Amino acid sequence: MLNLISGLSRRQKGYVFLALDLVLIPLALLFTFAVQALPAPALTTLWHTWPVLPYLMLSATGLSMWLGLPMIQLNAYERHAVGLTAIYALAVAGSLAVLSGIAQLGLPPGTHVVFGISYFLAIVAARAVMLYLTIAVYQSAGPRCRVLIYGAGATGAQLAQALKSHEAIDPVAFVDDNSSLQGMMLAGLPVLAPAKIAEIVKARAINRVLLAMPSVSPPKQAQIARRVQKMGLEVQTLPSFAQLIGEEALVDKLAPVAPQTFLGRASRAGELGRAAFSYAGRSVLVSGAGGSIGSELCRQVLTCQPRKLVLYELSELALYTVHQELLSLTEETGIEVVPVLGSITDPRQVRGVLAEHEVQVVLHAAAYKHVPLVEANPLPGLANNVFGTQTLAVAAAQAGVERFILISSDKAVRPTNVMGASKRLAELVVQDLATRTGRRSARQGRVSPTIFAMVRFGNVLGSSGSVIPLFQDQISRGGPVTVTDPNVRRFFMTTREAVQLVLKAGSEARGGEIFVLDMGEPVSILHLARQVIESAGYTVRDEIHPEGDIEIAITGLRPGEKMEEELTLTDDLIGTRYSKIFCAHEDYLSEIEVAAMLRSLRQALAAGDAAAARGVILRWVEGYAPLVAEQKSS
């Protein structure tokens, strides 16, 4: 039977509906004559009207085709179609009156009215029976997806009505948090409590759950979805009608609040001013050009009008992305933008790139910076951050580069993790090169060909892997927002501030300086989490507000993580021409000590001995105390 129904074309199904409507005409007449007080029996009266029946059915055919009744699908036969049927039945009854008058059948006027009503009811009933039978055929022909509708409001009720005529989906029941609806019947389906979802799924063989709660906040929907998915069910969300027609923005289109909103102080980014002259007309190389800091460095360097900008990047995708963006910014400037795919740990490639492009300024931003990842992979982190820096810095000195600026981190100060320690070792390497080239130039009676300097700053708002994008992603998934410890505090700055610090400090450098920014007071991460949640339009769920949208979960400090970061090893800070930029004077290792440190570290890496590598850090990095973070975490 299913093959027969599904094998019919739309036109063929229309012919079936038309034929059925025509067959119902004599049946409706017979019923009319039976309920009317006529002198002759119903069959006899029908026989007397037989001469006009062909003409009546011919006019009915024309009326039906004109109104388009045969083309209305069964599952779309609703209020509008019923109205057309009433007009059609009234027109057929009028045709009968005209034809019976011409043929002088002598039928009472009320007969035509009763016929019209009877014919209308017969057509509607026939359509309903056909729909029921068709659904029964489809339901018995193959497996159907049994769905549970979460939400018994207006959207849920409309969804249930629409799905009842679906050939492959079978709505089974509603669940709703509203206790006043629980136990009621809606659209022929029971409304049950969400606490019984597991029982309902098992007892009624549910395959899928449809969330029909467009007015509920996305985080709560995400929480419900995750809870249901753990039961092995597929979950789908239904948007509101306002979203479907475009009057209300879909959740996916909502833009998150800009990270700089949470800075907690006025931004200190201004114009580069005189600092731009240190990069104008020069060939500038940015290592790690595809990263958050590296790409912003490239953008701001372009405003200084360099002769050439060399993008040095290990990630092919990141390099492609930043290169395409910068090409659009330099179409009419004449600045050459050169993408270089490679690693800073490759000495031959590094020397070749510096020589080929006659690089004059190196801004070294390439580094592995994610604390937990480097903590779990200490050897690659040390190889890239320490020996990559050494390779690039030594090659820069040999090539006669004017300036070499290392991008460092506040985590390098008394570090409790391998990432911070690797950045401190990189600083020691650059400080050693600055000291040696300075002494050599002094002996030769000339200015140092390469100025080495370091710039140290805190967390950058919105950078890849930083806390605010993480919070926003957790909020989009319904939470919880994770904070390691309620007392953790961090320094924050915007990407623009960080890059301007690098460029301004680079222009001020005379050799061996460590530049830091006055970043104000450190920010509580717990307070920041609340800000991000509330800025997204949601409320925090806690003991005081159990009905809130997003929960904040305290997970405990991760290995190598501090409660608070520091910017300098000492309080010995000297001001610069820029009011918020300072130069820190810190002790550094001698040339022999740096050589011994690098030799021991290289041996540990060659042997693949992470414990030996940590021993090198413990020996040479001031304040390195990995056990402190582990104790706090435990």
What is the secondary structure topology, with strand pairs?
Elements: H1 2-7, H2 10-35, H3 42-48, H4 53-67, H5 79-102, H6 109-141, E1 145-150, H7 154-163, E2 169-175, E3 185-186, E4 189-192, H8 197-204, E5 208-211, H9 218-229, E6 234-237, H10 241-244, E7 283-287, H11 292-302, E8 308-313, H12 316-329, E9 336-341, H13 347-356, E10 361-364, H14 371-376, H15 378-399, E11 403-409, H16 418-444, E12 451-457, E13 459-460, H17 467-476, E14 481-483, E15 489-490, E16 492-493, H18 495-508, E17 514-517, E18 523-524, H19 525-535, E19 540-541, E20 550-554, E21 573-575, E22 581-584, H20 591-607, H21 610-620, H22 626-633
Could you characterize what this model shows?
- There is one protein chain.
- This protein has 634 residues and is of the alpha/beta class.
- The protein is 48% helix and 14% strand.
- The strands form five sheets. It has a nine-stranded mixed β-sheet, with helices on both faces.
